[in-house]
């Protein structure tokens, strides 16, 4: 079965390489410009948005302001910025043939590069792949010399022969990155291969949802290790709390204790992450009324106290759960209209429990 998966993945990759992308209007969030760059694993095949979903949640919760950039666009509503430069089926040479134009258009400050899987799957001059990768990195650093370029080893492949070739390719990357650093370039190694196993793959090539989230955690740790690569936490951290189902934002009609949180048309950012609190109007926190934990407990604002009913987990799957209750922030009755009240409800994976903290568009 693994051999079949590997063959099918390779065939799909070749077909995808022949199909044009579907760019859309870019989303600009006014933050540090980050380009996710690579193939279908960057695009998020099998799980649209891929590791960008978990990375977006982490940088947002961490108080950073970033702007994903690229000519491609996909992912769920809970992904606050859908732009990327992931091209299913593409090899290193195909990325390199287009990189100059993409960099001119997007002018990223940070590049997240995961590429080489299709060189292995398509058995395309595999021995020459390290040289192609080195040249690609040179072209990136030449075009944007002040950018921080993070070069990842490729993730595991289920087919044993392809995995062996992938490991050989990966083994050349640390030395290449070191040579760029020795030349004064802002290039950084990210060991992505070590973060996943074949159990994290849905089809022998592409990660599961959990696998993509492991990738997100590795990217985030790497970014945090390089000062300035995603800015400074605490700068311009106010966010809209955007509902995936309704297309509306959570807000309040007044800034007094006990005011219900409800859906309203999106406007200026209203919520600021502060640890596990979401604050608004200066000193008011998102609050489970009366420290309630049952289904249907109203969600309100109240003067921040630091208690558990005012603490929330912003999760990579788009849910926001109460630390005290373990229940999800929920738009009552799957309502989408202005004025729909927010409550606590048992998490069920439905769209009225999916949210994104995002900068105003």
From TrEMBL:
Note the InterPro entries from the entry.
Ester_Hydrolysis_Enzymes (IPR051532), Ricin_B-like_lectins (IPR035992), Ricin_B_lectin (IPR000772), SGNH_hydro (IPR013830), SGNH_hydro_sf (IPR036514)
Q: Which Pfam families match?
A: Lipase_GDSL_2, Ricin_B_lectin
- Which GO molecular function annotation, any one, does this entry have? phosphatidylcholine lysophospholipase activity
Tagged with keyword Lyase: no
Q: Which residues form the signal peptide?
A: 1-25
Database matches in SMART domains:
RICIN
The record places domain Ricin B lectin at 236-358
Q: Which CDD domains match?
A: beta-trefoil_Ricin_XLN-like, XynB_like
UniProt keyword list: Signal
UniProt-recorded name of the protein: Lipolytic protein G-D-S-L family
What is the species of this protein?
Amycolatopsis mediterranei (strain S699)
């Amino acid at each position: 079965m693994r051999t079949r998966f590997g063959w099918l993945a390779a065939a799909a990759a070749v077909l995808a390489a022949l199909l044009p992308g579907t760019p859309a209007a870019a989303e600009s969030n006014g933050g540090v410009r980050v380009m996710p760059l690579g193939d279908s694993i960057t695009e998020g095949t099998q799980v649209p948005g891929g590791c960008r979903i978990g990375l977006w949640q982490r940088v947002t919760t961490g108080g950073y302001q970033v702007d994903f950039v690229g000519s491609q666009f996909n992912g769920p509503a809970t992904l606050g910025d859908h732009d990327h430069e992931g091209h299913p089926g593409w090899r290193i040479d195909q990325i390199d043939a287009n990189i100059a134009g993409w960099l001119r258009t997007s002018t990223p400050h940070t590049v997240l590069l995961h590429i080489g899987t299709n060189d292995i799957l398509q058995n395309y001059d595999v021995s020459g792949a390290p040289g192609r990768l080195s040249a690609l990195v040179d072209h990136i650093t030449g075009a944007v010399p002040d950018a921080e370029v993070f070069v990842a080893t490729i993730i595991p492949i289920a087919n044993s022969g392809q995995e062996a070739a992938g490991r050989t390719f990966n083994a050349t990357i640390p030395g290449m990155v070191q040579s760029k650093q020795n030349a004064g370039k802002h290039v950084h190694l990210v060991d992505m291969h070590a973060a996943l196993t074949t159990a994290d793959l849905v089809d022998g090539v592409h990660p599961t949802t959990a696998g993509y989230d492991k990738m997100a955690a590795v990217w985030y740790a790497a970014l945090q290790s390089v000062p300035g690569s995603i800015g400074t936490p605490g700068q311009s951290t106010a966010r809209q709390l955007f509902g995936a189902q309704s297309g509306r934002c959570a807000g309040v009609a007044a800034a007094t204790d006990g005011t219900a949180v409800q859906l309203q048309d999106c406007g200026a950012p209203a919520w600021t992450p502060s640890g596990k609190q979401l604050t608004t109007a200066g000193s008011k926190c998102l609050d489970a009324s009366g420290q309630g934990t049952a289904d249907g407990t109203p969600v309100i604002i109240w003067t921040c106290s630091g208690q558990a009913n005012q603490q929330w987990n912003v999760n990579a799957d788009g849910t926001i759960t109460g630390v005290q209750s373990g229940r999800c922030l929920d738009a009552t009755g799957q309502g989408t209209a202005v004025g729909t009240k927010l409550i606590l409800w048992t998490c069920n994976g439905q769209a009225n429990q999916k949210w994104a903290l995002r900068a105003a568009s």
